[in-house]
Amino acid sequence: MHFAGTATCGIGFSFNAVEIICQEKSTFSNFFHTNLLRKIIRFVSKMMQRVVNSPILGAIVTNGVQPHRGMATLKVIQMRLKSVKNIQKITQSMKMVSAAKYARAERELKQARPYGEGAKGFYEVADIQPEKEDKKELYIAMTSDRGLCGAVHTGIARQIRNELNAMPDSENARIICVGDKSRAVLQRNFSKKFIFVANEVGRIPPTFLDASKIAIQVLNSGFDYTHGKIVYNKFRTVVSYNLSELPIFSLKLVESSDKLVAYDSLDADIIRDYLEFSLASLLFYAMKEGACSEQSSRMSAMDNATKNAGEMIDKLALTFNRTRQAVITRELIEIISGAAALN
Predict the structure, then answer these.
(1) Where are the alpha helices (DSSP H) in the chain?
(2) What SS3 class is residue 268?
(3) Res. 342 pLDDT band, cuts 50 70 90
(4) Which of 29, 148, 264, 288 has the fewest beta carbons closer than 10 A?
(5) Quick check: 57 and 6 in contact, CB under 8 A?
(6) Gap between the Cα atoms of 145 and 47, Å rounded
């Protein structure tokens, strides 16, 4: 006897088989009474309901019946398992690439630190204090164009956003974004304060030439700032970094300092030339610190992503095996039920 027809409850066995059995009642009447036939059909129905309601079996799609929401089939689980395995391979490869780039960035950072330390030492000795009245403040956000590295870039943008929101008079404040990541966060509320945005940052290791180009654009922007700050990430260890700031001051504010007498033979041209060089040095130092922090954070993020993918693979493999076992159980029940009905 062929058990065909529309399936119900997600089971291949059809309740339309009852009609077939009733139509062939004359054939079965030689072997069974009507009551016995009803008991067999009732038994098969109960067994099918138990299989459908089993927590192990999650909606098997057969004979064109659509599964319930949130339930997966063997094919869907297998496709998702393959997808997660591919993602794990990608994250593992990105981790290895980031580890190599981090080692190079750390070596270059040690060579770039004297540039930043020397410029900071000059401002500390000069003891320059920002003006409290008629001040024009400049914020330089040191980020990059690359993502998948945790909250490295969003932390810088959030710091600038919070300071601008807390500032009582932020009309004289301007922003320069080095990298698209800071621009994407700040342009929603402060797009009118942008002076310019430096793109193509982070694809290759930063150089002093890149910092010099940014410094030239800052000096030629037409915004006569009194003081400002460079917001960047300072590298500490492989798994940690600090959000730091580097101060910058205008030529007029530096010349008005009373402690410049500590330096001999300083005139306006020398101070102007040194401020241009110190601005490029501070930018170069901040870019190197940010690049090293970014690579270390990306390496940690890809390591965590690889571990999470491994856990998902284990769970999906377990679900796949349980679902496959449920399919085998269902088929055995159909065979036994059919054999019991024929006997």
Answers:
(1) 17-23, 25-28, 34-52, 74-126, 152-166, 180-190, 208-219, 251-255, 268-342
(2) helix
(3) confident
(4) 264
(5) no
(6) 60
Strand pairing report for 194-198 and 240-249? unpaired
CB burial readout 3-27, b (16+ within 10 A) else e? eeeebeebbbbbbebeeebeeeeee
- Which two three-digit tokens encode residue 21? 């059995």
Distance CA 169, CA 186 (A): 18
Q: Rounded to whole angstroms, how far apart are CA atoms 36 and 314? A: 47
For residues 154 and 219, give the distance between their C-alpha atoms in angstroms, rounded to a whole number.
Answer: 26
Question: Based on the number of CB atoms within 10 Å of its own CB, is 266 exposed (0-12), middle (13-18) or buried (19 or more)?
Answer: middle
How far is residue 27's CA from residue 321's CA, in Å, rounded to a whole number? Answer: 42
* More confident position, 201 or 25: 201
Print burial letters for 191-222: b (CB count within 10 Å at least 16), e (below 16). Answer: eebebebbeebbeeebebebbbebbeebeeee
- pLDDT value at position 335? 86
Retrieve residue 59's tokens.
Answer: 């909606």
CA pair distance 115, 246, nearest whole angstrom? 12
pLDDT at 171 (0 to 100): 84
Q: What is the pTM of this model?
A: 0.73
Strand pairing of 227-237 and 240-249? antiparallel
Q: What DSSP character marks residue 13?
A: S
Q: How many residues in the chain?
A: 343
CA distance 12 to 16: 11
Rounded Cα–Cα distance for residues 297 and 150 (Å): 6
